[in-house]
């Protein structure tokens, strides 16, 4: 009998950070890149030393038109660098604009792909890109997924003074086998989304979370026995301290694990 073997080889070369190819990406020089790709002096699979592809670099510089061109040339929207990050991770983290992230998602970028730290693109500090992705693509987000520190997308969205209750409620999560709300998930330190909102002084989010059915669970002390009043005091925001004292939220004499 005859056997036929087919080998597919993916050639990868390094393009230096700060070199002419990288500069062309920074400037959005599509004509230059098309010439290099056509001559095979550059390939869409080429990477920097840390594993970033041309598409990673393009996403980091928010060059929207280059995204379309590179993907049409065969660039993988879910390629990963040495940290396991996709171009969408880079786009969201830089947070320059939502449109860049939207184009990547439209071309098939996986919004739930986790990097080596267990973080999806939305396990990132709150910015315009994260806000809009939650708003318009929330039904595709796993609100229960935790990164290596135990934080969910809701934790990250709460860990800012700029997010609003709407950011946490645009898309109610589907029923989960555990039957609990994603609001009640604690990170590895025992922090809830409410602890993080207090830490950042997000008054609107604090008021919203305290009005939810999960409020009693959210307000429980963390693993170091730090209460909401501890967090309010540590934040240095007197109005938050007064707020919790008026609500009689927590024992003013209660000490945390460090005796404070």
UniProtKB/TrEMBL annotation:
<feature type="repeat" description="ANK">
    <location>
        <begin position="83"/>
        <end position="116"/>
    </location>
</feature>
<dbReference type="InterPro" id="IPR002110">
    <property type="entry name" value="Ankyrin_rpt"/>
</dbReference>
<feature type="repeat" description="ANK">
    <location>
        <begin position="189"/>
        <end position="211"/>
    </location>
</feature>
<keyword id="KW-0677">Repeat</keyword>
<keyword id="KW-0040">ANK repeat</keyword>
<dbReference type="InterPro" id="IPR036770">
    <property type="entry name" value="Ankyrin_rpt-contain_sf"/>
</dbReference>
<protein>
    <submittedName>
        <fullName>Ankyrin</fullName>
    </submittedName>
</protein>
<feature type="repeat" description="ANK">
    <location>
        <begin position="50"/>
        <end position="82"/>
    </location>
</feature>
<dbReference type="Pfam" id="PF12796">
    <property type="entry name" value="Ank_2"/>
</dbReference>
């Amino acid at each position: 009998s005859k056997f036929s073997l087919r080998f597919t080889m993916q050639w990868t070369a390094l393009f230096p950070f700060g070199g002419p190819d990288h500069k062309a990406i920074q400037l959005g020089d599509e004509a230059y890149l098309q010439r290099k790709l056509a001559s095979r002096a550059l390939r869409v699979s080429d990477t920097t030393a840390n594993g970033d592809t041309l598409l990673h670099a393009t996403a980091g510089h928010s060059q929207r038109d280059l995204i379309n061109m590179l993907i049409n040339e065969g660039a993988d929207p879910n390629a990963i660098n040495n940290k396991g990050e996709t171009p969408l991770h880079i786009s969201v983290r830089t947070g320059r604009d939502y449109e860049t992230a939207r184009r990547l998602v439209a071309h098939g970028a996986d919004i739930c792909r986790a990097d080596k730290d267990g973080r999806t693109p939305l396990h990132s500090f709150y910015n315009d890109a994260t806000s809009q992705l939650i708003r318009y693509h929330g039904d595709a987000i796993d609100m229960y997924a935790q990164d290596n520190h135990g934080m969910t997308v809701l934790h990250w969205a709460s860990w800012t003074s700029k997010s609003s209750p709407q950011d946490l409620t645009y898309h109610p999560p589907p029923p989960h086998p555990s039957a609990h709300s994603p609001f009640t998930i604690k990170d590895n330190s025992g922090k809830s989304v409410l602890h993080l909102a207090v830490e950042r002084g997000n008054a609107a989010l604090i008021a919203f979370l305290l009005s939810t059915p999960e409020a009693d669970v959210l307000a429980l002390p963390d693993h170091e026995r730090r209460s909401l009043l501890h967090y309010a005091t540590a934040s240095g925001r007197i109005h938050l301290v007064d707020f919790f004292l008026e609500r009689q939220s927590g024992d003013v004499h209660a000490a945390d694990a460090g005796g404070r």
